[in-house]
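Need the bound structure for 2-acetamido-2-deoxy-beta-D-glucopyranose, inputs here:
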Amino acid sequence: MILAKAFVALLAASTGARMMRKDEVRERQMEALKKWRRGPGPAVLHESTKRSEVQNITFSNPKASEFWVDGSALPLVDFDVGPSWAGLLPISNNPNEMRQLFFWFFPPGPEGSLDDLIFWTNCGPGCSSLKGLLQENGRSTIKPLSWSYGQAKPTVNENSWTNLSSVLWVEQPVGTGFSQGTPNIENEDQLSEQLLWLTGESYAGFHVPYIANYIYENPTLLDLSLQGILIIDPLISSWVVQEEIPAVNFVHKYEGLFSFNQTFLKYLNEKAARCNYTDYVSTYLTYPPKGLLPLPGGFSDITADCDVWEDIFNAALIINPAFNMYRIWDTYPILWDILGFPGSFPQEQSPIYFNRKEVKEAIHAPVDTEWSECSVANVFPDGDNSLPPAFTVLPNVIEKSVRSVIVHGMADFVLIAEGTRIIIQNMTWNGLQGFQTPILDDSFIVDDVGAFGTMHSERGLTYYEVVLSGHMVPQFSPVAAFQIMQHLMGFRDTP
Ligand SMILES: *[C@@H]1O[C@H](CO)[C@@H](O)[C@H](O)[C@H]1NC(C)=O
Ligand SMILES: *[C@@H]1O[C@H](CO)[C@@H](O)[C@H](O)[C@H]1NC(C)=O
Ligand SMILES: *[C@@H]1O[C@H](CO)[C@@H](O)[C@H](O)[C@H]1NC(C)=O
Ligand SMILES: *[C@@H]1O[C@H](CO)[C@@H](O)[C@H](O)[C@H]1NC(C)=O
Ligand SMILES: *[C@@H]1O[C@H](CO)[C@@H](O)[C@H](O)[C@H]1NC(C)=O
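Answer from helper R.:
Posting the output first, comments after.
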């Protein structure tokens, strides 16, 4: 009896203590969110150039008007996104040129710089940069637009990179095509003499350094002055380094999340040991490096008997068929996505936005072309013939650039951050190999919020690891990505 009473009292006390009304919960969330809200004025070094309206860009070439997009009439968007220009342009001046690239150009928002131009390209090969525009860094001028996973309708994106400067999204494949033809923007005199920042994600780890290198080595080609590059969760070396060596470490780091059974963990550990992955990081990933870093087994291609990544992916799918290699903690339900690609697997959940006839017409896209976010089914391309940029052009690009940035989301299992650390420590630029001093914990500070990962800067290269972010850092951590872009462009004093 007494016990029961005590129990009832305890229950009352504990439920009482835990009672939180929904509006109180909401209040706490709003309080936390305040720190993530940015005031206007992203371009801190551009205070004097502050304007209150969208910048009106004019083009000396009268043909530009054919590409103008009416920002007040984008289908399904119930606000005015401001002026922009989009369409197809041939990749060369050859009158018989059949190859055309689709571009979408936005001028800067009120506080953005008119002296700069950001070029963005997405992953792939075969994935569209319009994904970046609609779901990552994008969108517009008056009211930047964002339509990410699970959103019933587009919302204003406060962290659009158009707050920094003009942005040009180009649908790839650009790669070699872009390099051999003069980029299409040569027709837009307005853009000449601007400072160019090349940025991209994933497979763009190949494109961006090669394009940058081509521009640096052919300086008369462009009326733009290339300043630097930013590559996000980039493929820049071999799959063995970017997936296999760090894969089992990654599982241990997120062991509770993967929730593998003990038998499988034991199997993974034994395989990693046999393949010489287990002690790799503790032995070779030192600051400064002790010499060139070896490739376990001396091979750079994935072999079946050491493919721990594949084992992990398959096992993760068994207990979580919604497993998203681009952001490992996703579970069911798979979110609705207006672009039809909300995770590891394409989904047929909606009429795809860029596949709607009226959308294609609004942005001067070819109406009879079937658009899909990734046209190539193989997420793991065999690579092109170029050697990985870390072994070839990347050091030269870093040396020629004012600043170069590599960013990695920590929840990305497609390309794993620790592999990027290995690549950096094995790379020689500006006279030395790798970083000379260690990457410190909590060294990336997001303004007003606090530690949000790590950051390290030496000899013109800054490397960021962003916590709580999957593969697409501007989509999953837009405030962090925006701050990183400010650093790249010299709009802030600290990284
Ligand atoms: C971007 O500009 C808009 C409009 O001026 C402003 O409301 C927003 O806070 C800016 N965002 C950032 C990240 O500075
Ligand atoms: C921008 O400039 C163009 C051409 O100079 C002009 O036709 C248009 O009305 C201007 N738009 C705004 C919003 O000022
Ligand atoms: C490190 O660089 C050397 C020389 O380019 C190369 O032979 C080796 O395979 C690289 N190691 C890794 C882990 O990529
Ligand atoms: C692992 O390292 C040992 C000792 O250096 C070597 O004999 C063996 O071939 C390596 N195994 C693999 C799969 O790389
Ligand atoms: C443990 O995990 C492995 C890999 O997913 C699976 O094949 C095996 O059936 C699992 N064992 C049990 C008891 O669930």
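Comments: Residues 123 and 358 are 26 Å apart (CA to CA). The chain has two domains: 62-237+384-489, 240-336.
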